[in-house]
Amino acid sequence: MRRAPIWLAVGLVPAALAAGPPKDSCVECHAALADELQKPALAFATDIHSQHGFSCADCHGGDRGADDAEIAMSAAHGFKGKPARKTVPQLCARCHSDVGLMRRYNPRERVDQYAEYQTSVHGKLIASGDEAAATCIDCHSVHDIRAVKDPLAPVHPLRLPETCSRCHSDAARMAKYKIPTNQFAEYRQSVHWEALAKRRDLSAPSCASCHGNHGATPPQVSSVAAVCGSCHAMMEDLYDKSPHHDVFAGMNLGGCVVCHSNHGVKMPSTAMLAGEGSVCKQCHEAGSAEGQIAAGMAGAITKLDSSLKSSDAVLTQAARSGMEVSEAVMKQQDGREALVKARVAVHTLDPAAVLKAADAGLAIAAETRRAGEAALKERDFRRLGLIFALIVIAVTIVGLWLAVRALERGAPPLEESGRR
């Protein structure tokens, strides 16, 4: 087989580079316009569809290769113009529900988003003719759509709560649905927001974690514990076996949210069990049997927490003094695990389970504290020994100095002077 001349292969390279990307008269024309007509063309440069080779015509129809605007936007070339708002989900689904097409660009991309959307509150409202409900473009943007993992994407985990709040914090928009508008404000006070926004933990729950994304819907009362349990599986299992489960179900209450709220979930503490602001007081008087059980569980957890902190302080002091307490420090981790177990056991409403975990932790805290105190005593003993050694050394040095001085003056030795 004859090979092509090398000059031909080299000559083809500049030609290929000169060809560049396919012609897109839509972008060329709109980029030369002003204001609102120019914005889509400028924004599309960062759009993930543009990066994969798609053009305006793939959504709006028309001929991207035509220089004449009338030809490019003619009905004969399939030009549709601006899609009606209610048709946006179906328009996006033309590609995003096509398994073969999506596998070409992102094999891991789901293709059931539109099917899920149709089951959502948003999808049902759009289907009923309510065009105020959210569609794809309200969450993903329009001409500058970015990948979910892109930090600038409105659906990136760090930005998603704010994106949802654009509609759900708008009192005028939510008025006809009789939906509260304080969800985002409450969420920003929650332990979930603390993890997401301040610690940058992308796995922390946000709106989509509980409500879903394309299939967004409020969790039903009977499913709240299951929703929370998707992350807090151990708590869900204990709660299901507790007296609260049947009581709350009988009262048509939403399980976890009765004590923890929904959007404004606070960091759990013993203050939830006992005290003026305790959640238990919502149903039980402080002096009742149930109130006393709650106070007892709170007391056991508080005692363990205080004991572990006290032991930590002793061990830290010993470690800073250079004493070897690494084994006791590692043992403290078992005590902290016991504290977690005691807190988790509260969901059983069984004081014996809480006390069992707390007592195990208290034993560990006592053991590690003794180790720390023993290390501090050894430190003090070593310091006294050092001080004594320094005194002996100092006396010896002074004696030697006096002897040297006496020799220098030619004085008789001390022994001879004594004999005289």
Explain this structure.
The chain is mainly alpha-helical and 420 residues long. Among the domains are: 22-82, no CATH class; 289-381. The protein contains 24 helices and no strands. The termini are far apart.
Summarize the structure.
The protein has 420 residues and is mostly helical. It contains 24 helices and no strands. The radius of gyration is 37 Å and the shape is flat.
Given the structure, what is the number of helices?
24
Largest sheet: none
Uncertain stretches of 5 or more adjacent residues: 1-19
The share of residues in extended strands comes to under 5%
Measured between the Cα atoms of the first and last residue, the distance is 124 Å
For the CA atoms, what is the radius of gyration? 37 Å
Could you say which structural class the secondary elements and strand pairing correspond to? Answer: mainly alpha
Shape: flat
**SSE string, helices as H and strands as E:** HHHHHHHHHHHHHHHHHHHHHHHH
Secondary-structure blueprint:
Layout: H1 6-19, H2 25-31, H3 39-43, H4 48-51, H5 57-60, H6 69-72, H7 88-96, H8 99-105, H9 113-119, H10 121-127, H11 136-140, H12 160-168, H13 171-174, H14 183-187, H15 191-198, H16 207-211, H17 224-229, H18 233-240, H19 243-250, H20 256-260, H21 289-320, H22 326-345, H23 351-408, H24 414-419
Helix pairs in contact: 21-22, 21-23, 22-23
